Amino acid sequence: MLYIRDKDLIAAEACYHKSYYNNYFKVKVPRKLDNKIIPTSTCSDTPASASSHSEAETTGTSDNETSCPPHRPVINETQELYHAAQVLRECMSKVSGVSWPPTSGKLDSHAVDTIIPLQLHNFIAWMIAPGAAELGGEKDKAQLPDDILVRLQSIAQDLIYAYHKGRVVTPKHVALGVSVRHLTRSAQTIGLLNKFGHTVSHSYLQELDTAVATKAINEDHLLPPNINATHFTTAVWDNIDLSEETLSGKGTTHHTNGILVQRPPEPHPQALTVTRRTGERSYRGNPQKILPYFNRKKVGPDMVQMDVSLLAVNRELCREAEKIDFVWMLLRLGSTYPLGDGDGCNLQTVPGWSGFNASNALGRQVPQQSTVGYLPCIPASPTDMSTVYTLLTKSVDICTRLNQDGIVVVLDQAIYCKALQILWREKDKFARVVLRLGAFHTTCVMLAVVGKRFDDAGLRDVLTESGIVAQGSINGIMTGKHYNRAVRIFKIVYEAIQRMRWQSFLEALPELGKRAIIEDLHMGKDTADGLLHSQDVEDVYARYEEYCSSNLTPMFSYWSSFIDLMQIILNFIRATRTGDFELHLASIRAMLPWMFAYDRTNYMRYCSVYWLQMMKLHATHPSINQHLHNGDFVVQRSKHNPFGQIACDMAIEQTFNKDTKSSGGIVGFSLKAGAVERWTLSSPERAATVAACRELAGMNGTSIWIHKDQSRLQRDEEDVVKVMNTFKSFVNPFTEECEQLIHLTSGYVPSQDITSDLLTARQTGEERFMKFIDERLVNEETDFFAPLPKLRSKTFKSTRKVVKVSPTVSVQEDRHLFGSILAVNNKLTRQINLEELFEYSLGTYPYSLTTVTGGLAKTNKAKLLEQLEKDQDTTEPGAIRENSAWIYDGMAVLQQLVNSNAMTFGEFGEQVLDVLLSVTKMTTCQRIDFVPDRYLINSIKSAERGKRGSGGNIRVQIMSPEQKKTVQWKKFLSCDDNKEELVEFLFGEWCKQKYAATLEGITLVVAHSEKCHSITSSGSHLTVLEIPSLKTTQEEADTRLFLHAAHASLEYNTVVVRSPDTDVAVIGISHCGDIMANIYMDTGVRDKRRIINLDNVAKSLGPSKAKDLVKLHAFTGCDTISSFYGKGKSKSYNIFLGQEESSLSQLGNSLEVTPRLLSDCEKFVCHLYGSDSHTSVNKLRYEKFIKTKARSECLPPNQDSLQLHVRRANYQAYIWTNALNAQPYLESPFEHGWRRDGEDIAVEWMKLPPAPKAIMELMSCKCKRNNCSSKVCPCRKHELQCTDACKCKECSNQDERDDISSDDEEGSDDEDEDAAVGDS
Predict the structure, then answer these.
(1) Residues with Cβ within 8 Å of residue 548, at least 6 apart in sequence
(2) Which residues of 627-641 are buried (b: 16+ CB within 10 A; e: fewer)?
(3) Is the model's pLDDT at 1059 over the cut of 70?
(4) Is the pLDDT of residue 834 over 90?
(5) Phi, psi of 1132 (to 5 degrees)
(6) 1158, 901 Cβ separation under 8 angstroms
(7) Quick one: 1303 exposed, middle or buried, by C-beta within 10 A (0-12, 13-18, 19+)?
(8) pLDDT at 1074 over 80
(9) Three-state secondary structure along 1035-1095?
(10) Rounded to 5 degrees, what are φ and ψ at 1023?
């Protein structure tokens, strides 16, 4: 009635009758109301209004005279709110939201404004913004301040999302959800926000990630979606170590990340087109394949033709940059002091180094913001040659896709050196690639050079005493590992030393000259441009340079070199910040002498090459050279900072690597290849969405970044003053009193040779650099890869004295026992026969055979294979063309697939089979053998396997092919039961008919447990047959491989054994003569992989040497037998070759250890320790100790422990010698040098006690209580008296010492010794 009374007279009349109103108006509000918002009446509630109308009528007052005129309808407040709600519901029902997939291009503020209806916008504006009613109308949205508009749009989008029950998504809900997931990767946090209606669900975000990744794959798998063709592009590759938590710290993930950097006109990624929503959340991925790169002889660079004058440092360019820093120092000093020395300190107003240069560059145009695109992650370490070869190949493919003449690839030094070797070898393939050395890592190296030169000169003490660095952080600064902190601290020290040197310059001037300079500088000190372009400043700077170069006192020169080094680093950083490639190269050239002076070996070699290649770039790659000189060698991430460009290798650290390791990175699911790839492919879109979210929240920020925060300025100024005061409290290096080089804090004067090395370091480094260029790159007199001799420049660290322990201090029973025997011997109560003493191990273990904890002493087994491969040609798999059989070490294959992306065990079985069959694509292979280890109780390999599984293991029972494969694969393979069960599963899986087509034409031989079966296919049907002759009791795959090789040789002329183990190669060489086929070995991993002709190696050795090789290998150290400490495989191999008849020829012929065998092995050990004439190791031990005072581990083992070693080596050699015997006779190892240790097996190191009882007198005590009267005293506990070697006080265990000593002088040692012990 109230709504229609203006148009209906009956309704108008009824509204004025109270009785009608009371009787008929109490009905439900109509369902359909007019779509027009009616402002609330100025009257009170409706009944009161109706009453007032009645009163007006009775008093004869017209409608126009009432407080509620007819054109302003009077309604109930609840009804009016309901009506408004219906209007808002109507308009919200027409909102369609963001189309699928909701990418960043659809999430900007314009999209939000389009989605929010006019009525909803104005309604919220009228509620939350005072005075907004006048700003909005029926056709225009209310104009609001930015901060209120952000809140309005957030509320409006929440209402729309709630109305549609989440079926219509808005930009806020997608952008906020993606951002929270990116920053936290917390499903619970997203779930809470979703329940409150602020974001989409977590499953929706997973689906979005999958959609974006799938779209990227479909469009172009190689290029990120935000990278445009035809624009100059730089590829940056770096390692990423995820460092998962493991018990041992081993088994962590090492991948290779890559980014592309461009500066296109439109850096923002284009929005993806609308696609159909599939509902897929999981992503299987398309794993990156690692291209094999087989080891070849290194090829060095081409000879360089260059004018020698070009090798000099561009001093003019460097001086201009140094002058800017000089002016900055003067301005900072003039802001607090009168450009000289003074007592008062004013408030610092000049920004720090970065802020000053940014302020000084405000007039320049800010470089175009760079676009950073993430490349698919390569699941392998970049230190492998195959990985480097893969990333270079990908870079070339990217260059082709982008229609570029060339591409720049930026790498850190560890990858750069390997990439260079590949480029030098395959010049044609990678002709379009220009390699650049990462500037960020180069800066870190130079910071480490500064730390090495000045750390022990007192700089560490200055930093600690001044309080500007916490003591625990100093090491990270001195080594350059804490980049930001090291740069800041070294800049503070640089400024402090500059000020002190400037003050010494002013003090050296006459008073009139000093005043003239200060007046000249004061005239323009408030403006940087005024000083930079002032001729007076140029004249002052020239005089200052002359003063610094003419002052040749050691202290002045030494600490001025700190300024010189930091100036090089600052120039290098300036070149990066400003994109000045000429200054970049000049700074690199200035760094090189210091790198050579302080033995930065890798950078000495490869940074020199980098600098020369960049200097010649105008001739080799002119277009790329032009781009680099235009500033395209750095990355501009900020929109507003003209001094904010960063190095490419820092860009990948701050983007891809940082995102990877952040809470929203891939650390939590790094073992899932599909999730990693999805994360990588969606990273550019995710980053753009986060940026869009920040913009929606009003956090885009438009202020120019300048380091002018007053608190930070004051903090830096205070730190500079602290450093200056600390220097002066010790020694001011720029005063005339310091005429010689001294340590800042201790006052120690180093020797002349140390002083000379410190003061001539740069000159010496320059000479070494020029010699390197001349001999290895210009004239090629020396091989480029030949070892670089270290200069070993002396520093203050060389002055540290080695503190020697007092000879009267006894050492407890450990590996260093020998050091005190002679010294203490004369002070003991009884003399010891040292020759008899050396018949004992004199330690808990024989340290010449063990580690200090009783583990096997290890040697580098690969050295033996290197010796065997000398002068032998290696081939690649494709070189084997004839029909052949390939025999695989099964466990090596399973370990190789540690990063498999298989989801189930069935899929894993398919991948293992693909690896085995991959050789058929390169060769005409017709037979493939899969030979794993067996795992027996009380195996002699148990200790080594336990060591490899020290990170923990898990037990998993495989029930079906559909069972989900465990993610922790390394822990899975650390359990022996798992491995045996997995082998049985693989055999059963491969016997299924679904593999009939795959195995057509191939005979697959699978060893499992003791049995062995062949699997053949007729194309549609599989045949599985047992091979009785291959049923064996052998445990090791190392020997079983050649049992299979002998079986395969009955049908094939060529057999290739694939294993990365040196043990396998040695066994193969020893048995070549017993196998009818030609035996090859495919060995090595990653970039060391190659194929060796074992027959050729055996022929070069001769039949007897080849047979005995396996015995040498067992005796000198393998997985189960310890090596001799400090005696590598090369030395023992040379002795072996030099013997006409090997001393080890009887080893392993039988399980019996004869006296002759023991004698022959003892002679071999004496020869190994440098004596051809000795036949007794005990006597050799004694004589070597008397002559050299060597530590126990450097002496030969005693005869007792050596005989046990011979028994173990004989047992192992016997196993290897009988490799072709399927059922070898084998005794228990407990009679052959091993013992029981509970339920386990352990090495029996010695049968004799560690030492005779008399040696216990060497034990000393340090008792300070009880007067050595109780068994708390070690001497009393062992029934020994305290000696002069003890440090006890008020000892009661020495009373009878004098009497015993007198008895000893006259009687027998043994008798008196027994008597003394009995008396005590």
Answers:
(1) 501, 505, 560
(2) bbbebbbbbbebbeb
(3) yes
(4) no
(5) -65, -35
(6) no
(7) middle
(8) yes
(9) CCHHHHHHHHHHHHCCCCCEEEEECCCHHHHHHHHHHHHHCCCEEEEEECCHHHCEEEEHH
(10) -120, 125
Q: What are the residues whose beta carbons fall under 8 Å from the beta carbon of 936, sequence distance 6 or more?
A: 1035
Distance between CA atoms of 1070 and 1125, rounded to whole angstroms? 26
Phi and psi, residue 1081, nearest 5°? -130, 125
Sheet strands side by side (includes 1022-1026): 874-875, 1090-1093, 1078-1083, 1054-1058, 884-889, 925-931, 1003-1008, 1011-1017, 1022-1026
Task: Say if residue 101 is preceded by a cis peptide, omega within 30 of 0.
Answer: yes
3-state class (DSSP) for residue 807: coil
Beta strand segments in 1152-1274, E: 1234-1237, 1240-1243
Query: Which pLDDT does position 154 carry in this prediction?
Result: 93
Q: Is the dihedral of CA 849, 855, 860, 864 positive or negative?
A: positive
Tell me the helix, strand and coil percentages in the chain, rounded to 5. Answer: 50, 5, 40
Strand-pair partners of 1023 = 1016
Average pLDDT over residues 162-184: 90
Find all residues with CB under 8 Å of 554, minimum gap 6, and list them: 738, 739, 740, 741, 755, 759
Average pLDDT over residues 651-659: 82
Residues whose CB is less than 8 angstroms from the CB of residue 193 and which lie 6 or more positions away in sequence, other chains included: 176, 177, 180, 199
Distance, in Å, from the CA atom of 39 to the CA atom of 135, rounded to the nearest integer, reads: 15
Give CA–CA dist 1282/1280, Å, rounded.
7
Higher pLDDT, 951 or 393: 393
CA atoms 408, 414, 415, 417: torsion sign: positive
Paired tokens of 939: 């195996």
Q: What's the maximum distance between 2 C-alpha atoms anywhere in the chain? A: 151
Q: Strands 371-374, 254-262: parallel, antiparallel or unpaired by DSSP? A: antiparallel
CA atoms within 13 A on the CB side of 1267: 7
Name the band, by pLDDT with cuts 50, 70 and 90, for residue 269: very low
Q: What angle do CA 340, 346, 348 make, to 5 degrees?
A: 95
d(CA 256, CA 398): 17
User: Using CA atoms, how far apart are residues 1112 and 1099, in angstroms rounded to an integer?
Assistant: 17
Q: What is the pLDDT of residues 271-316, one digit of tens each?
A: 445 566 766 766 666 666 788 887 777 888 887 776 655 678 888 8
How many H helices and E strands in the chain? 51, 18
Q: Residue with structure tokens 């409006």?
A: 156
pLDDT score, position 445: 96
Q: In the 3-class helix/strand/coil scheme, how is 603-671 assigned residue by residue?
A: HHHHHHHHHHHHHCHHHHCHHHHHHHHCCCCEEECCCCCCCCEEEHHHHHHHHHHHHHHCCCCCHHHCC
Over the chain, what is the mean pLDDT?
Answer: 80
The whole-number pLDDT of residue 862 equals 82
Alpha-carbon gap, residue 666 to 661, rounded angstroms: 7
- Rounded CA gap, 657 and 384, in Å? 19
* Bridge pairing between strands 1011-1017 and 1022-1026: antiparallel
Report the pLDDT value the prediction gives residue 173, as an integer from 0 to 100. Answer: 92
Q: Taking Cα atoms as reference points, which of 928, 1209, 1137 lies closest to residue 1045?
A: 928
Q: What distance in Å separates the CA atoms of residue 689 and residue 102, rounded to the nearest whole number? A: 9
The radius of gyration of the chain's CA atoms, rounded to the nearest angstrom, is 42
The angle that helices 118-128 and 146-163 make with each other, rounded to 10 degrees, is 120
Burial class (CB in 10 A: 0-12, 13-18, 19+), 587: buried
CA 419 – CA 1197 distance, rounded (Å): 46
Which of 68-72, 363-367, 378-382 has the largest mean confidence?
Answer: 378-382
Contact 22, 16 (CB under 8 A): no
State the average pLDDT over residues 1252-1266.
Answer: 64
Question: For position 155, what pLDDT does the model report?
Answer: 94
